[in-house]
Amino acid sequence: MSQNTPSKISEDDDQRYWRVAIVEDHLLHRRRTEDLIAAQSGLRVVSSCETLVEFVDWLRNTDVRSRPHILILDLVVDRGRDADPALVRQIVDSGIRVLVFSAMASVPLVRSILRSGVSGIVGKRDSEDDVIAAIWAVLKRGQWITPELANVMATDSSRPALSDQEERALILYASGLSLDAVAAALNVKRETAKTYLERVKRKYAAAGRPVRTKVDLHREALRDSLIDPLDKA
């Protein structure tokens, strides 16, 4: 079940707090992010949602004085569609600064989101101090990108050029999901998900990095920093 917990803020409070919204589909991660922000003087969570669509729905019905200054956004959800770059662009154009806070470094998705005008990207493996520093940097109209992600996004001639859906399928499958679960997460048929993974295998083979099994895919996804080392094959 989704969780959206807007807070009521008086006009006096509005002058003293930066308003923060969170979009995160994992309840424990969302709660920890809420606690982390609540511990900071001058920050207040006004909305905490499971999906970007839910946040946009909440925003449409919210008084302008309660609108957040910053949205902390997880790009990838386990079930359903990833964050839509066009929707992110609309949020940015409305005057809300966006800080991406995500674990999966899908390079095509990240690049498209960066083109949407987000102000920063911080990883879930980064320290809590770095997360807070990123929030304040973005609120002060600065930019933030974690060095690890900058390295991931650097051109690597040995890295196959995967489409967004192919890379997403690889990430999900290499992280331990079954083929059926991958298909459900991508909202496609099982055969379509299988086709994505077959294309991934062919592209890795063409790059001189042959993969045949799920364990092979997990190894190469780790090498390309697409998944966390703690994710199981």
Strand order of the largest sheet: 2-1-3-4-5-6
Please trace the helix and strand order, writing H or E for each element. HEHEHEHEHEHEHHHHH
* Number of helical regions: 11
CATH class of the largest domain: Alpha Beta
What's the domain count?
Answer: 2
Strand content: 5-15%
What is the tally of beta strands?
6
Judging from the principal axes of the Cα atoms, what is the shape? elongated
Q: In terms of quaternary structure, what is this?
A: single chain
Major sheet details: 6 strands, parallel
CATH superfamily of the largest domain: Response regulator
Separation of the first and last Cα atoms: 27 Å
Give the structural class: alpha/beta
Give the integer mean of the pLDDT values.
Answer: 83
The CATH architecture of the largest domain comes to 3-Layer(aba) Sandwich
Low-confidence stretches: 5-13
CATH topology of the largest domain: Rossmann fold
How would you explain this protein's 3D organization?
The protein is α/β, with parallel strands linked by helices. The chain has two domains: 11-153, Response regulator (Rossmann fold, 3-Layer(aba) Sandwich); 164-223, Arc Repressor Mutant, subunit A (Orthogonal Bundle). The protein is 46% helix and 12% strand. It is built from eleven helices and six strands. A six-stranded parallel beta sheet has the order 2-1-3-4-5-6, sandwiched between helices. α8 crosses α9 and α8 crosses α11. The chain is elongated. The two termini are 27 Å apart. The model is unreliable at 5-13 (pLDDT under 50).
